[in-house]
Specification:
CATH class of the largest domain: Alpha Beta
Number of helices: 13
Number of domains: 2
CATH superfamily of the largest domain: Enolase-like C-terminal domain
CATH architecture of the largest domain: Alpha-Beta Barrel
Bound molecules: magnesium ion
CATH topology of the largest domain: TIM Barrel
Helix content: 25-40%
Strand content: 15-25%
Length: about 375
Amino acid sequence: MKIIRLSVFQKTCPLTKPYSLSGGRLIFKELDTTFVKLETDTGIVGWGEGCPWGHTYLPAHGPGIRAGLETMAPAILGLDPRRTDEVNRAMDLALPGHLYAKSPVDMACWDAFGKSTGLPVVDLLGARYDEPVPIASSISTGTPQEMLALIDGYRATGYRVHSAKVGADVKMDIERIRYLATNEKPGELIFYDVNRAWTVSEAILVMNAVSDLPVVFEQPCETLDQCASVAARTGHPISIDERLETLTDLHRIIADRCGEIVNIKLNRVGGLTRARRLRDVCLAHGIRMLTMDTGGTVLADTAVHHFAQSIPVDYRMGSWLCQEMITFDPAPGQGSRNINGCASAPLLPGLGVDLDELLLGDPVAVYG
Ligand code: MG
C-alpha cells in the first residue's frame, strides 16, 4: 500500500465562548484546524487533524502545519502508511522538529492502517482496556464562584474530572484552590493547571499554602528546571504538560523528578506513533497519564481516545473533548462523544470517523 495523494483542508472553529488561561495572560476566541486526507493506491483513505490551541499557547500555529505539510509532502508520497515509524523518520529527515505539523499525517497513517486490517486503531496500539475514559472539563480562569459555576455546568453533563486554570495573582489563586477543593464532590478530581504562569517562588508560596489539601498541579512553571525546583520544595504531585514534547524530555522529567504525572497531547508530541513510545516509558516508571490533543474537532478527540484506551485503567487520569468547546463538527453523531462524563474509542476500523467532506469545503492544497 502506497500513499498517492495528500489533500489539506483548513477550518476556523469559533469557541462557544471566549476562553482564558494562564491567569488571563492568554485569551482565545477561535481555533485554526487543519485536516489531512491521505489517499492510497488501494483506495483506502486515512484522515488526520492538527489543531494548535491558537498561536500564543505553544510554539505552534495552524499556518505552520500547512507550511510544514508543503515541505514534507514529497518525502511522504510513495511510502506505506502502515509503516508508521518509517513515515515519521521520513518526515524527520525532510523537516527536523515541527512535531505539531507531523501529527495529522501520523494520525491519517494510523487511520489508513486500521482500515487496511479491519481493526480499530486502539487495537493496533497493542491493547484495548474497555473501561471508558473519564473526560476532563477545562475551566477558564475567573473568580472562585465563577469557576465553580463552570464546574457545575460540566457536572450536569456527567463530568467528574476538572482542569481548573489558575496562575494569576498568588493570593487569589490560593483562594480559588481552597474554594474549589472545599466544594469538590466525592469521586471527583479537580487538578489545578497553571499553564507555566508562576515563577518558582510563586509556585512554592501557593502550593505550600494549600499543603493540607490533596490536590494535583499541572505545569506550575515555564521550564523543567523550574518545575524540578518546585517539586523539591513542595509536597503535591505535579503533572508536566507543555514541557513534554519528546522521549528525551520524558527521560529528563523522570531523572530529575520534575513531576509524577504527564499530560500527553498528540499534536504537541507529534502524533500517535510518538505518543505510544511515551506511554510505554511512563508505564515502566509508574507515571500516570492525562491524554489529550492541543485542540480540534471530533476527529482529534477520537484519536485521543484510541490512545487513551490503550493505557491500563490505573494509569489513566483523564482525557478531554475539545469538541464541546467549539461550534464546528465535521462528523455529526460519530466518533468519541461524552457519555455521562466518559468517552470511548469507536469499534470501527481505523479511527472510526467518516468526515463529511462537504462540511470541509475545498482543499487548500493537494500534493500528489
Ligand atoms: Mg495543561
